[in-house]
Amino acid sequence: MRPRWSAEQRLAWLLCAPAVTAMLVVTAYPMLYALWLSLFRYDLRFPGERHFAGLANYAAVLTSEVWWRALLNTLMITVGSVALELVLGMVFALVMHRALVGRRAVRTGLLVPYGIITVVAAMSWRFAFDPTTGFVNGLLGLHAAWLAERWSAFFVIIQTEVWKTTPFMALLLLAGLTLVPEELLRAARVDGAGAWQRFFRITLPQMRPVILVALLFRTLDAFRIFDTVYVQTRGAQDTATVSLVGYDTLITRLNLGLGSAVSVLIFVCVVLIAVLYIKGFGLDLTARGRGR
Amino acid sequence: MRDRGGVLERLFWGAGSLLVLGYALVPVAWLVSLSLKRAADLGDGRFLPAAVSAENYVTVLRDPQFSASLVNSLGIAAIATALAVLLALLAAYAIVRLELPGRRLILAAALAIAMFPPVSIIGPLFNLWRGFGLYDSWAGLVLPYLTFSLPLALWSLSAFLREIPWDLEQAARVDGATPLQALWRVIVPLAAPGVVTAAILVFMFSWNDFLFASALTSTNQARTVPAAIAFFTGSSRFEQPTGSIAAASVVVTLPVILLVLVFQRRIVAGLTAGAVKG
Amino acid sequence: MVCTLAACARPPAQPPHLHWYVFDEQSGAFAAAARRCSEESGGRYEIVLAPLPTDADQQREQLVRRLAAGDPDIAIIGMDVIWTAELAAAGWILPWEGEAARQARAGRLASSVQSASYDGRLWGVPFTTNTQLLWYRTDRVAKPPATWDQMLTTAEGLGTHGTIEAQGERYEGLTVFFVSLLASAGGQVLSADGRSVSLAPGPTRRALEIMQRLATSSVADPGLATAREDQGRLAFEQGGPSFMLNYTYVWPSAHADAPAVAAHMGWARWPAVIPGRPSRVTLGGINLGIGAYTRHPKLAFDAASCLASAPSQRLAAERGGLPPTLTTLYDEPPIRRVFPFAEVLRETLRDAVQRPQTPLYADLSLAISHTLHPMRAIDPIRDVARLRAAVGRALRSEGLL
Description:
The structure holds three protein chains of three kinds.
Chain A: H1 2-37, E1 40-41, E2 51-52, H2 56-62, H3 65-98, H4 103-115, H5 118-129, H6 136-140, H7 150-177, H8 182-190, H9 195-223, H10 227-232, H11 242-252, H12 256-280
Antiparallel strand pairs in A: 1-2
Chain B: H1 7-36, H2 55-62, H3 64-97, H4 103-115, H5 119-132, H6 138-162, H7 167-174, H8 179-208, H9 211-215, H10 225-229, H11 242-267
Helix pairs in contact in B: 1-11, 2-11, 3-6, 3-8, 4-6, 6-8, 7-8, 8-11
Chain C: H1 5-9, E1 17-23, H2 29-40, E2 46-52, H3 56-68, E3 74-80, H4 84-89, H5 98-105, H6 110-115, E4 117-118, E5 121-122, E6 125-130, E7 132-137, H7 148-157, E8 164-165, H8 172-184, H9 201-216, H10 229-238, E9 243-247, H11 250-257, H12 259-262, E10 265-268, E11 284-290, H13 297-307, H14 310-320, H15 333-338, H16 342-350, H17 361-372, H18 382-395
Parallel strand pairs in C: 1-2, 1-3, 8-9
Antiparallel strand pairs in C: 3-11, 4-5, 6-11, 7-9, 7-10
Helix pairs in contact in C: 2-14, 8-9, 8-17, 17-18
């Protein structure tokens, strides 16, 4: 028995090696370097004045009102967009799965928003909501300046994000839908279960791993939202997100120490979210599945 | 055999399809309309253009920088996708099917990579690439795209492979097939939707990325479309080139639509019951 | 094949390529200037255009990253005027000295030369310049208003047609607006040595009062909080607004896109803040600097001097609509045809105010625009202190902004 296992282990490592190598080579150094930089006071314009500052940068960030407001904004955008995307994505996945007429058109059409470059989508929605040049105000008979007020700006940002990435959710959920065994559903129908019951008692639980993976990655991405906010408001009207704060500090102000601290803190927040999913929702891919 | 619903059910799903299409395509229609508007009409607030003009498309297609960037985008995204899916498939198979000590660690590390804010990676990566001579090259972009989409591909493929009933493979072997034949004839078709899904995700990630593309390129050699769009100008310093950007995006989305059309049949493979689940 | 040693020792030498990093100029004026100068050099060098993104912030991002890495490819840089101090203090550009500096200063607008100077030295040769004027509808307003109060009152009297277009988004343009108003009120952001905050309470409060009055009055564009230069231009061209504070590019644009509006378009100097005291508007433009790591510094200086000479400036003005920096050019008929408002422009440029010349300008601008946005929420009394605190933090490069 033992020799067979270690051969299997060797094979397993061999198969994983390329992926692991690629991930390490490209990201290990930059991530560790960013961590290292966050302990220094370092402005790119004055390299000679760089000096060790310990945790001073972290203290500066954590005591800054700017950081906490940005964190709140980011959480609001994340929860809002992910929740909407889950519901919409599920609806779209069901439609794609069940529709017989025009199935190809629906599946192709739905992926188009996902293929439009993010900065362009953000720009075109910004243009659409503009009071002077856009069509939304005319359509709804309003004169609002959507991006000039905080809550309507949030609406536009979340709306753009949802439009752009629901196809991502729908795609993953569709792949998950195909895994639900038809005979279970048929048996339930024969037993007299209604459509809603079949959906909630059979379909959803069967799709659980896929739903959780989709949610996890979507949440991680939503938390680090940058392009849309940058193009539409640049963080004005108190819509700044943590990534935008990091960008401003790192790239505009060239304060590498402080900016790296912001980045590390963003990373910590995202880790917490992932832990929540894995421990809280029980997302575990390493447990043996149905197959074995 | 698929459940045959009544006419009402058919209508319901048909209406749903229309809604989905509308949701997806109305904003794209707005983009097309913007691209067809004359410069003077950009501010008129109408959905459809008052007068159709192809001037934006002429500008965009005549721009050598843009056509170069389109080739770059397609090539880099394709290579990154192929490599990412291959590596992820091998690793996912090992994680799900084989005894792999440290598989939790690998998945966790992959996740950690997907979680780090890219904006702070660009600086050190830029310096690293300059040192290795990878700055402003296809490989210089393929590697980060590969790395940052591997976690997603790995996790989604793992989730998918985990749900495949592997006893079918056993059944095929019992029926007399070799391990490789069993893998090819039974498992690969089952895994196909997951693989195609992962491929689409990786492709879209590479296609859409702006941060890495603008930081790690400097000439037409490797600049991709999102970065190239930043170079579009209006007819003066302050004028926003909205029309050109819209036209460029439309041109750029066409290959994506074509790719999706080709592969959409595989997205939900004929996983009809019976052979698989019965 | 027999050849003499000298003849086949080396292939015919290629003139060294000097890369000129500047934004992509649509009309081709820059490309023409580069070609002209390459030919005039008689084979000593060849200027090759290396395009940068259109947005000034993105240009700076790319340049800074590469200069910090010691890129030898960057020879000539088309620098925005606000980058002079930053690039100079970091040692990423070379100072102009001696004869080259004397020539670079000769005959140029004093304010442009000042924009290229830092710490007593010259760091670039002024190439093009830019500043804002007041544009108004001559069919609705007989005489352009002389002061801000007058303009606001007149506009409010015009009802729905009274809108004043300005830039109110949270970006560099808002800082420009504030600095212009502050200077017109007699104040300045930093002390003379650029190391401490000035922001005298009187002028600062006056500037903030005007901003608040504009943003909360009926004549403000509803999208003021997200308006940049181009939004104002588009709105003005639609025919509604009667006043617009904008750069000179709106003139040819209106003539091309909205002839009906352009037929009634007049220009004037920016309205004054203090009656009797001429307004001061912020200076923009491009200076040509030399990258510190270039392999051919001497050639780069020669090339930049040629690029900033009169013929190139004429090209930039006539084809690209970019105002020149050589004072005599404003009297030439072809230039006056492109800029019918040349006199007003020259006056404004003469009195123009510099944005604070400090290496930490990027932080400063962020602090100012973040504090003063949105304009309608400005409290002229409370915000003087807030602004001073924010600018102080930016100067010390501490904390998040």
